[in-house]
Design goal:
Four Helix Bundle (Hemerythrin (Met), subunit A); Creatine Kinase, Chain A, domain 2; Ubiquitin-like (UB roll); alpha+beta; binds magnesium ion; binds adenosine-5'-diphosphate; 696 residues; eight-stranded antiparallel sheet; six-stranded mixed sheet
């Protein structure tokens, strides 16, 4: 036990280390930057760099890297060693303030969506002092933002930091109205629950679809799926347990507060939840967590799949983004307190969030859009593609009362009886659980549940922060002029509830009735990435981002292009992989089986002339028919891929990929999966779902 608390964070240049190793004035200046967002005095950078280097070398580091998050969704790093030559041929270990603050990686190989054409290939990385440096693989990693020569953000961190700044500014205006003069800063906090699959490495290596696409493109449903619901929270197998222990150990050393690990709904699916922290750090930590999951799995002879839908017909993986607002004095602004109806400040923040989610449904949906997540949102395990809010019974009655002008009749907090008298009695949460809502209030935070498992949480949080900042700024504009604050707050909350209550929904979000009702309420139902991406460049959204300085207009357009391009590329890789597997693996295997069966039938007839070889004939007939059907689909797919080359308009091209390429892939898969069920297991060319899901 003791050794864990000793090793926790030992690879992080955290507050404790800074306090120990930096001169007092430098430490204080750096702290001001970290906690209050003040810009850093350049003159102290050398001192910090030197202390960082000494500390890192003591821990065995030989290199440093500016660690950043380009638009690829994964992290990037370029290692530089600390060595610096001396005139006498010897070397010394050096690291200057300049090297800490700024790096110049070549930006030309990262997605820039047109920004590169207009600006230089050169890119800059700039130290983000609000996220601690850490050591990974003997390298000192310095979290950095990544931008172009012209200052355009080329990464996921920059807009996130800008959005945190925006919401801080507006939240402070609101807090001032309530006389909170002592609060210097409002930060958003996030706890990102991460789902993933673990499968055997040897089996993984036999499947090109998993290797190239991260998901299976073929595979019939196994006889047993998740219908018995025996995996969720089930006993963890020793091999998985060892993986989790090893992973926790690695994460803890990096100061990542991995807290909960359990089995998820699907076989071979698991979840890790950390304790929440500042959004910026939570985003960095989630990237490291995903990277380490993959690395540690390899060590245990397994592969970690982070794709949103690795297996059709089996639950996919998502990420739950628990989000709240906290002051630098430690107050959670989404804590309703004992009597929410009296807590005007809470209600004002709640109203702002409700309004933000309603007015920017499109952006929230967009923030989770990807080719991978399209397989998940709207199937009956994940939230649907329709954005709505769950606030819970109690808050709902408070909001109803405000809207109708009636006094709120509060049911006394119901005591929950568990029925076993030795267990402690406790009070029921003010919010019951609704597991189907895409955006649920869970007591003192919102849980945004639409995120895909492989995506960076930066995008969704950038959108959340910016849209809520906008609503807070509208509220502040009104209330700062008010001479009847409490009356006006009530009016504002009432007006907001009346205008935006259509976004509140407490029923089953997976049901067909909701799809119809949402339509009647005028809510958006943007089913695919291609449907939602054009909203990025809509006037109202451009206005929002530029007003709060989160994205410039050219950044928005570049990101829009990157997202479209990425969608097309992913589908192209999947389609090519499918052609390859069908032609080089499935046809030959099935032909082989047909040949064997035919030969068996011939030999049998020689031996027993009146045997009509019913079994052989029937299987051969079915497989031959399926083979020609698959052949047709695969040729159609191949032609469709050729056709994509004719498109010059990216959006039209993406639409073609979705409507034609993906559709044809789907049809080909159905045929191939039927073939799998009829073919001798010995000859089937790659591991089946049964093996992948149950042999870990
Ligand atoms: P559940 O299991 O119901 O989803 P938990 O209470 O286990 O909920 O919390 C889930 C996640 O929410 C954890 O990562 C937790 O750290 C995070 N969380 C709790 N409070 C906050 C908060 N104020 N801000 C952001 N995240 C939070
Ligand atoms: Mg959760």
């Amino acid at each position: 036990m003791n050794s864990i608390s000793e090793s926790f964070g030992k690879l992080v240049f955290n507050d404790k280390v800074m306090c120990e190793r930096l001169p007092n004035d430098v430490y204080k200046a750096l702290k001001r930057t970290i906690e209050m967002g003040k810009s850093l005095d350049r003159s102290i950078a050398d001192v910090i760099a030197n202390a960082m280097k000494d500390w890192a070398i003591e821990k065995g580091a030989t290199h440093y890297t500016h660690w950043f998050q380009p638009m690829t969704g994964v992290t990037a790093e370029k290692h530089e060693s600390f060595i610096s030559p001396k005139s006498n041929g010897a070397v010394i270990m050096e690291f200057s303030g300049k090297e800490l603050i700024k790096g110049e990686p070549d930006a030309s190989s990262f997605p820039s969506g047109g920004l590169r054409a207009t600006f230089e290939a050169r890119g800059y990385t700039a130290w983000d002092p609000t996220s601690y440096a850490f050591i990974k693989d003997n390298t000192l990693c310095i979290p950095t933002a990544f931008c172009s020569y012209g200052g355009q953000a080329l990464d996921k961190k920059t807009p996130l930091l800008r959005s945190m700044e925006a919401i801080n500014k507006q939240a402070i205006r609101i807090l001032k109205l309530f006389g909170n003069e002592d609060i210097g800063r409002v930060i958003t906090t996030v706890g990102a629950e991460q789902e993933y699959f673990l499968i055997d490495k040897e089996l993984f290596e036999k499947r090109k679809d998993l290797i190239f696409c991260g998901r299976t493109l073929f595979g019939a449903k196994p006889p047993k799926g998740q219908e018995l619901e025996d995996h969720y929270f089930g006993t963890i197998k020793p091999r998985i347990k060892a993986f989790m222990a090893d992973l926790d150990d690695e994460l803890w050393k990096l100061g990542i507060l991995a807290k909960t690990e359990h089995n998820e709904a699907a076989p071979a699916q698991h979840e890790l939840a950390p304790i929440f922290t500042t959004t910026n750090i939570a985003a960095d930590h989630n990237q490291i967590t995903m990277e380490l999951m993959k690395k540690v799995a390899q060590r245990h002879g397994m592969v970690c799949l982070l794709h949103e839908k690795p297996f059709a017909g089996v639950n996919g993986s998502g990420k739950h983004n628990n989000w709240s607002l906290t002051t630098n004095t430690g107050i959670n602004l989404l804590e309703p307190g004992d009597s929410p109806e009296e807590n005007a400040q809470f209600l004002l923040f709640l109203a702002a969030i409700i309004k933000a989610v309603d007015e920017y449904q499109d952006l929230l949906r967009l923030s989770v859009a990807s080719a991978g997540n399209d397989h998940r949102l709207g199937s009956n395990e994940a939230p649907p593609a329709i954005v709505s809010i769950f606030v819970g019974e109690e808050l709902s009655s408070v909001l109803d009362a405000i809207e109708s002008g009636n006094a709120c009749v509060r049911k006394d907090k119901q005591e929950m009886r568990i029925g076993v008298h030795v267990l402690p009695r406790f009070f029921k949460d003010t919010t019951d659980r609704n597991r189907t809502s895409p955006f649920a209030f869970t007591g003192n935070k919102f849980e945004f549940r639409m995120l895909g498992s492989s995506q960076s949480i930066s995008g969704p949080n950038t959108i959340l922060n910016t849209t809520v900042a906008e609503e807070l700024s509208q509220f502040a504009d009104i209330l700062e002029k008010s001479d009847n604050l409490h009356g006006d707050i009530l009016d504002l909350v009432r007006k907001t509830v009346t205008e935006h209550k259509r976004i509140i929904y407490h029923g089953n979000n997976y049901s067909d009735e909701w799809v119809d009702e949402a339509k009647n309420r005028g809510l958006l139902n943007l089913k695919s990435t291609v449907d939602v991406l054009p909203y990025f460049i809509a006037d109202k959204n451009v206005e929002l981002f530029t007003k709060h300085k989160v994205f410039s207009e050219s950044e928005i357009h570049s990101r829009y292009e990157i997202l479209l391009e990425n969608y097309c590329k992913v589908l192209n890789i999947e389609a090519l992989t499918m052609l390859d597997i069908a032609r080089k693996e499935i046809y030959p295997a099935v032909s082989e089986y047909i040949k064997e069966l035919s030969q068996t039938a011939l030999s049998k007839q020689q031996l027993i002339p009146d045997d009509c070889c019913e079994v052989e004939k029937s299987i051969v007939t079915k497989l031959s028919a399926l083979s020609s059907s698959l052949y047709k689909k695969i040729e159609a797919l191949s032609n469709a891929l050729l056709e994509t080359k004719n498109y010059t308009d990216l959006l039209a091209c993406a639409r073609f990929y979705k409507d034609t390429v993906l559709e044809t892939m789907q049809e080909a898969r159905v045929v191939a999966d039927e073939m799998e069920l009829l073919t001798d297991a010995r000859l089937w060319p790659f591991p089946t779902f049964s093996e992948l899901l149950f042999k870990v």
